[in-house]
């Protein structure tokens, strides 16, 4: 999978979760903490998805060229 395909998958997944969290009939009963843990789990999944396909989630470089510090990566 190329970085372009990964980015595309990321954006459609982001749209999904935003739509889902924005739909009060689905997520209306969630607390702010629920939402945070859902986003956190989703973030972790994305990081693993990118790494599984050999890319860094934060800088989008191949893992062998990535110099990002730590695990707490988040894209611009
Ligand atoms: Zn990186």
Question: In angstroms, what separates the terminal alpha carbons?
Answer: 21 Å
As residue ranges, the low-confidence spans are none
Main sheet? Answer: none
Number of helical segments?
Answer: 3
Name its key features.
elongated; binds zinc ion; 3 helices; 76 residues; mainly alpha
Descriptive account of the structure:
- The structure is a single chain.
- With 76 residues, the chain is mostly helical.
- The protein has one domain.
- Helices cover 59% and strands 0% of the residues.
- The protein has three helices and no strands.
- Helix 1 packs antiparallel against helix 3.
- The longest helix has 21 residues.
- The chain is elongated, with a radius of gyration of 14 Å.
- The site of zinc ion (ZN) has 6 residues, from loops.
- Zinc ion (ZN) binds next to loops.
Summarize the structure.
The protein is built from three helices and no strands. The chain is mainly α. Zinc ion binds at residues 56, 58-59, 61, 66, 68.
Please specify the SSE layout and strand pairing.
Layout: H1 3-22, H2 24-27, H3 32-52
Helix pairs in contact: 1-3
The protein binds zinc ion (ZN).
């Amino acid at each position: 999978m190329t970085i372009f395909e990964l980015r595309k998958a990321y954006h459609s997944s982001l749209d999904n979760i935003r739509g889902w969290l924005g739909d009060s009939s689905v997520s209306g009963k969630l607390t702010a903490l629920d939402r945070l843990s859902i986003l956190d789990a989703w973030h972790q999944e994305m990081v693993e998805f990118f790494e599984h396909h050999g890319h860094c989630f934060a800088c989008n470089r191949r893992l062998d060229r990535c110099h990002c510090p730590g695990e707490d990566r988040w894209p611009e």
